[in-house]
Amino acid sequence: MEQTYRDFTLQWHITHRCNLRCRHCYQDDYSAFDSDGAKLVLDQFSEVMKAYNCVGRLNLTGGEPLTHPKLFDILHEARARGMRTGVLTNGTLIGEWEARRLKASGVDYVQVSLDGCEKTHDKIRGKGSFDRAVNGIIALRAQGIFTSVSFTAQRQNQRELARLARYCDSLGADKLWFDRVVIPADEDKEQLTLSAPEFQRLCRTAARLNRRGKVFCGRSLQFLPCKNKLIYHCAAGENLLIVLANGDVMPCRRLPLVIGSVHETDLLTLHRQHPVMQELRGIGIPQGCQACQYAETCRGGSKCIAYAKTGRYDIPDPDCPLAKKDPTLFFQHAESGSV
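Below the sequence we write its predicted C-alpha cells.
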C-alpha cells in the first residue's frame, strides 16, 4: 500500500545569511544563498503533496529569511500552489512595512524567537535584539497575523520561561512554545545543553503555565507532566524534510545528516528511497519504550536529542524519565564519539 500523510512539512532555509550570531546557532556557514532555486523546490514539493495526497506546509527560514529579497514572492507562489505557509524568523527585521507585506502574501503564521527576557535574550542573541524582536511581534499582531514565540531552552535561560510567558501574554502573542537546544555532546563547549533533570523540571514549570493557557506543551516529552495530552512524536524520516540554501536535503535540521541535494535528486525520491529515511521510518518504538503507556504515540521522543547526546537515533530520548535506558551508551559515546 502506498504511504499517505495527512500533512507534510518542508522547512526551507532560503538563505544562510543572518544579521545575528546566536550562541547556540547550528549554522556554521553564513554565505549560502538561494537566488534562483524557488521554482525547483516548489515544483518538487508540489510532487510530494500530490504523491502523498496531503496538505503541504512550507516553513521558510534561514539564516534570517527577511534578508532574502524574494521572500514575499516565494510566499505568494507557494500559496498559489495550495501550500500553507509560515516564516520562522528572529523578528528583528520586521517593521510595519514588512508585516504588511507578510499579511498581503497570505502567510498563515510567523514564528519569532525569544530566548528569555531582555538581558538574557540579548546575551544569547546580541545587544538590542530583544527590543527589535518585540517590535516585530507588535507589528505582526497589528496586522492580525498569527504570531508564535519560540523559546530555545538552555542552561542560561531555563528559569526564565514563566517570566517570558507572562510577557508574551501581555504582548498578545498567540502562542509560546519551547524546545531544547540541540548541540552534539563533543561540540557543546559552553555546556548549554540541559541535563535530563533540568529538562524535566522545565516541563513541570511549563505544565503549570499550560493550565493557565500561557505555554503550549505539544513537543517531545513535554506532555508527560501536562494535562493537555497533545502527544507529539518525532517526524524525522516521516512527514518532514529540510532543504538548505545550497540545496542539501536533511531529514531534520537538528539531525545533522545530509541525504542528498535537490539539484541532483528530487525530494520525493529522496524521501521514499534514501536508506537513512527508510531506516528512520523503520525504527518504530525503540527498545526500552515498549512497555510505556505512551509508546504508540510518543515513539521514543526526539531522535535529534538522542543523536546529539549518544550518537544514535534508534534509542529512547535520553531525557525521558520513563524509558528504560542503557547506561553504557553515554560512556561509549564519551570514549569514541559515537556508538
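The beta strands are 7-13, 55-61, 84-89, 109-113, 147-153, 175-180, 240-243, 248-250, 260-261.
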